[in-house]
Amino acid sequence: MSGIYFHIPFCKQLCHYCAFHKSISLQSTNEMLDCFKKELELRKDYLDQKSISTIYFGGGTPSVYKPEQIQMLIDECSKYWNIENDAEITLEANPDDLSEKYLAALKNSSVNRLSVGIQSFHDEDLILMNRRHSGKEAYDTIKRAQAYGFDNISVDQIYGVPGLSMEKWMENLDLVYELDIQHISSYHLMYDPNTVFAKKLEKGQLIEVEEEESFNQFKYLIDSARQNGFTHYEISNFCKEGFISRHNSSYWKQKQYLGIGPSAHSYNYTEREWNIAHNYKYMKAVTEGGEFSEKEDLNFYDRFNDLVLTSLRTYWGLDLNLVKEQFGDDLYRHCEKKATKYIQSKHIRKENNSIILSDEGVFISNDIMSDFFFVEE
Ligand SMILES: C[S@@+](CC[C@H](N)C(=O)[O-])C[C@H]1O[C@@H](n2cnc3c(N)ncnc32)[C@H](O)[C@@H]1O
Ligand code: SF4
């Protein structure tokens, strides 16, 4: 099971919370497509398998490209790999790009999963975030996509946002449930450095929500999602039966993947590689045969820490038998020892020798994961 990720580094407008790599200068979109083609060719031997089960167009805003251009990239992949018949092919899209015309053309492409950035259905939140669409437009977009036959739709939402009261958050979720979609990604707002939100926070123009409010919103999210038929399978991800994001799960299950485009990451069991997060430098290097990525060889402890980080995020949890098999008795005992205190505090439960975060544990997952990491002295 291998996947290919394309990072589309363009957006039409900058959202005030977002630190993902992107440019609002759209002049080089065509040139960038040529570079993607070139990078695919250069890295055709990166994966040790010739079969691809997922392709993910993320960003930035992949829907700045026409469906025909997205299909061209998929066809380009099939020159080097066998794309499995039931491959999951996801396009991240902004609601304002999904017009009737766009959806009709996209339905004729191989894209079979949409991930739509809704964020909130309340206009005042969307204005604060500097989004390009209203709440109603976001709602209508999902309906329109369903009318065009898209039956594997995910929405992104953000909670813990200043001004998003519990009541408004409940309304956001109710609308999502009413839309009868297959997957939800719900993120707590992060004040990433160099974003407008982080600057506003520093100047006191935004005030972080209280931890109790954040916890209540998260708790409502997981309880209501369960009541509405969703499985909470990863910290921020919920799906109806059969609709786990196969692409993202392969990150969490430590499968290999190839990342194409500026800032994209790749992983092949022994090393991680990340492309330069700069459109011009990336394009110049790809075109002229220069270096466009950096690499890190993963040592024994890096690989252990990666396993902790990726598996504790999920409802499958950290399989202690696997730890023993791959990393030996010392790290097995290290995990057992760490788990004991969290089992007592009810942040972790143990099932079939796997340790799994409880709802309370998920809320402090970063602290728990760092505690499990093995740091060489
Ligand atoms: C890489 S973005 C691309 C999505 C698409 N461009 C859009 O905006 O609709 C994926 C998602 O990450 C989430 N996100 C980005 N920055 C975030 C932040 N600082 N805090 C919480 N969620 C964030 C948003 O929900 C966003 O939809
Ligand atoms: S949230 Fe999406 S549209 Fe907004 S800046 Fe980030 S990648 Fe671009």
TrEMBL record:
Keywords linked to the UniProt accession: 4Fe-4S, Chaperone, Cytoplasm, Heme, Iron, Iron-sulfur, Metal-binding, S-adenosyl-L-methionine
Localization terms from the record: Cytoplasm
Chain ranges of the Radical SAM core domain: 1-231
Predominant cellular place of this UniProt entry's protein: cytoplasm
InterPro entries recorded: Coproporphyrinogen-III_oxidase, Elp3/MiaA/NifB-like_rSAM, HemN_C, HemW-like, rSAM, rSAM_horseshoe, rSAM_sf
Protein family according to the UniProt entry: Belongs to the anaerobic coproporphyrinogen-III oxidase family. HemW subfamily.
Purpose: Probably acts as a heme chaperone, transferring heme to an unknown acceptor. Binds one molecule of heme per monomer, possibly covalently. Binds 1 [4Fe-4S] cluster. The cluster is coordinated with 3 cysteines and an exchangeable S-adenosyl-L-methionine.
Protein name: Heme chaperone HemW
Source species taxonomy: Bacteria, Pseudomonadati, Bacteroidota, Bacteroidia, Marinilabiliales
